[in-house]
Amino acid sequence: MASIMPTVVTLVLRSNASFIELSIRSNQSS
Q: According to the lineage, what is the superkingdom (predicted)?
């Protein structure tokens, strides 16, 4: 299980970063 955690954390961080980036783009375009 411990070996899976880094992968899960990386995926979550990537998802959050993508979401934030999309939010910023939406705010700038409006």
A: Eukaryota
Cα–Cα distance for residue pair 30/18, rounded to 1 Å: 18
Q: How far is Cα 8 from Cα 24, in angstroms, rounded to an integer?
A: 24
Task: State how far the alpha carbon of 9 is from the alpha carbons of 15, 20, 30, in Å.
Answer: 10, 16, 32
- What is the Cβ-side half-sphere exposure of residue 2, based on CA atoms within 13 angstroms? 0
Question: Per-block average pLDDT, block size 10, for the chain (30 residues)?
Answer: 89 97 90
Q: Which two tokens stand for residue 25?
A: 């783009």
Which amino acid type is present at position 14? R
